[in-house]
Design a protein that fits this description.
Elements lengths: L17 E3 L2 E4 L29 E5 L4 H12 L3 E6 L2 H13 L3 E6 L5 H15 L4 E4 L17 H29 L2 E6 L13 H21 L4 E8 L8 H4 L2 H10 L8 H12 L10 E4 L7
Length: 302
């Protein structure tokens, strides 16, 4: 019997959220605590299914939106989750919320465009857990007010977007791979976009190009590391109701038009990505690599 008297809790005693050497460690012994009122997780289903038991997963861009949803779901599936983001407040709060429910979460502030930060993230994960089984590369930026058609976008904006979205994806892949090679396998999941597949966002030239590059990077990595049992795949979300898209979806008329354009008749939610993310992170997808998996409500099918 475990400390709370329920057999579904972890048989461990951890510490409260604190900062240790630049790492936010958030762990507690029982997952039956009340949810924090200041976090938007009240509708989250917290059943622990353990499909990812014993796996260590790095999630970049974990403080909000799709990354936040994936990180929480991975933790509920039994994984030890290392969450990375530039938003230190939200990232540390999420780690604290997860662990208040008996789940395993650590936050490391990381700017994925900076090589030193990515090295520190990987080293922190290895120091804490001893291995890295999955990289869920979600971090990205979109500057609707600065990105534009090609001849109007500034070199500064181009470089910033490429730095986070494509250079960051490269750096994270580059520095998790040695650990995966050493341990004999792993899974890397990149987040793409329909804008990188079809020319549906001509005023987002930098963003669209960076997402097209993600698919190319994933495909070449999948071919290069397949014999090392390292799988590399891409998830392509459609029009998702997340903070990144709030700049356009906050207008009710525009929101309705985007909803109408989706064959399934609704916008995507962060929870829509979770199942696919878990599948690609788990051993259930052991024969899947080099794939591009659409989660767009049919948007790119028409």
């Amino acid at each position: 019997m475990y400390p709370c008297g329920k057999s579904c809790c972890f048989n461990k005693t951890f510490v409260n959220p604190q900062r240790l050497g630049g790492i936010f460690v958030a762990t507690m012994w029982c997952r039956h605590g009340k949810p924090s009122s200041d976090l938007n997780l009240s509708r989250t289903h917290w059943k622990v299914c353990m499909r990812l038991s014993d796996k260590v997963i790095i999630v970049t861009g974990a403080a909000a939106g799709l990354g936040r949803a994936a990180a929480a779901r991975f933790a509920r599936e039994g994984a030890s989750v290392v969450m990375a983001d530039t938003n230190e407040t939200a990232g540390a709060a999420l780690a604290g919320e997860l662990v208040s429910r008996g789940l395993k979460g650590v936050f490391v502030r990381t700017d994925v465009s900076k090589e030193g930060d990515v090295k520190a993230l990987v080293n922190a994960a290895l120091a804490r857990f001893g291995r890295i089984d999955v990289l869920h590369n979600n971090a990205a930026v979109l500057y609707n007010d600065r990105d534009s058609i090609v001849h109007e976008v500034s070199l500064e904006t181009w470089d910033i977007v490429m730095g986070v979205n494509l250079r960051g994806a490269f750096l994270c892949g580059k520095y998790v791979l040695p650990s995966m090679l050493k341990q004999g396998g792993g899974s890397i999941v990149y987040l793409g976009s329909p804008t990188g597949i079809v020319g549906c966002a001509p005023k987002l030239s930098a963003y669209s190009t960076s997402k097209a590059g993600i698919t190319g990077l994933a495909r070449v990595m999948a071919a290069a590391y397949a014999r090392n049992a390292i799988r590399v795949n891409v998830i392509v979300p459609g029009t998702m109701d997340t903070p990144m898209n709030s700049y356009i979806l906050s207008d009710d008329e525009v929101r309705e038009q985007f909803r109408e354009d989706v064959p399934l008749g609704r916008l995507g939610l962060p929870s829509d990505i979770e199942g696919l993310a878990v599948f690609l992170a788990s051993d259930e997808s052991s024969y899947c690599t080099g794939g591009v998996y659409m989660c767009d409500g049919g948007l790119t099918a028409v």
